[in-house]
Amino acid sequence: MAQSGLAAARDLTGVTAAIADNRHVLQELFAARRALTQYGNLLNQAVAALNAGADVPYLNDAIERTATTRDRVDEAVQRFIAIIDPSSPQPRSQRGHYGEAA
Hints:
mainly alpha
């Protein structure tokens, strides 16, 4: 354990890069979380409008944005797992347009 610590201390470039990678992934996850919350609210409003019989022209756009953000979250989680445990397998799920398994 001590030797690992000393090796990390000697390799400041590698340690700095790892910290920067972690920060970047966490920033991406927080941004995606905010976006998912916004799009979830938009989808809830769209469903309420549909239930009231209104036309919802932005529904497809809201679904598309939610799916895109979900994919960003999946990618960021996979990157974070790879940083924390580089030996772990990297499963990549394939999803259809509305999130179903392809």
